[in-house]
Specification:
Cytochrome Bc1 Complex, Chain D, domain 2, mainly alpha, 51% helix, binds heme C
């Protein structure tokens, strides 16, 4: 009698512990491929079937990015500190649990290859990326984003292999103050020292830079 009770209590404790994980995995998969039925379109219609992004449209790659970074970006769109007419309503229609689940899902996907036809790195861009421009107190991008722009931990996202149009759009968003979610306003200050040619050059360089298979540097 007693042992049956113990089994039942234990069983329900185990079930209670296991259930949220199962729900997470299922809901992330459904969100990505079907949306959530109340205002969220399938993520993959823009970010690609494997989270690889879309070069021509400038939709960012999500595959292999750090889960906490992705969760925070979704929270920032919802809080309007990162303005974008497409992503703000989507992020607002996701619950905190859904944001976390979908971020975890994308962080585990393998990093895709650089799309064929991507233009080679630009010389001005490479100099900015690896050495910066000290006459204007612009540090090398790689000092924060890691060697080759592979990303460092939760705070410094990878730039390698992101569509050039996406990198450009972010630098312009910081210049204009429509993206203002960066810790210590590091990117807001830095972007204002770059002109349109610098931005195009540095974006082209990182777009051509492959990311190692392990994803963001940790
Ligand atoms: C209609 C197209 C579209 C759909 C659908 C879409 N996105 Fe996006 N997403 C974008 C665009 C465009 C951007 C870049 C916005 C910007 O410039 O800030 C973006 C940016 C992001 C970013 C920021 C990435 C980074 O590197 O900072 C995340 C995270 C994201 N989307 C997650 C999602 C998730 C999760 C879903 C599904 C629930 C989704 N998106 C659905 C178009 C879309
Ligand atoms: C002093 C540190 C620092 C330096 C140097 C730096 N960055 Fe950043 N960058 C950051 C941080 C922090 C973030 C993340 C902001 C956030 O949390 O939303 C970021 C984000 C970005 C993003 C957005 C990526 C995404 O997935 O949305 C781009 C693009 C970017 N940086 C480009 C550059 C370029 C190009 C350079 C060199 C010209 C550069 N950064 C130099 C700190 C730095």
């Amino acid at each position: 009698m007693r042992s049956r009770l113990v089994t039942r209590v234990l069983g329900s404790a185990l079930f209670a512990g296991a259930a949220p994980l199962a729900v997470h995995a299922a809901s992330a998969q459904v969100l990505v491929s079907q949306g959530n039925g109340h205002g969220v379109p399938p993520c993959q219609s823009c970010h690609g079937a494997s989270g690889e992004g879309q070069t021509a449209a400038g939709f960012p790659r999500l595959a292999g990015l750090d889960a906490d970074y992705l969760t925070r970006q979704l929270a920032d769109y919802a809080a309007d500190t990162r303005a974008n007419p497409v992503m703000q309503p989507i992020a607002k229609s996701l619950s905190a649990d859904e944001r976390q689940a979908v971020a975890a899902y994308y962080s585990r996907l393998p990093v895709p290859a650089i799309p064929p036809g991507t233009p080679p790195p630009d010389r001005t861009g490479q100099t900015l990326a690896t050495r910066g421009r000290w006459s204007q107190q612009v540090p090398a991008c790689e000092q924060c984003h890691g060697p080759g722009g592979v990303g460092v931990g939760t705070h410094f996202p990878p730039l390698a292999g992101q569509p050039a149009a996406y990198i450009e759009a972010q630098l312009e968003a910081w210049q204009q103050g429509t993206r203002r979610n960066d810790p210590l306003q590091l990117m807001q200050h830095l972007s204002r020292k770059l002109d349109a040619r610098d931005i195009a050059a540095v974006a082209q360089s990182f777009a051509a830079q492959p990311l190692p298979a392990g994803g963001s540097g940790r």
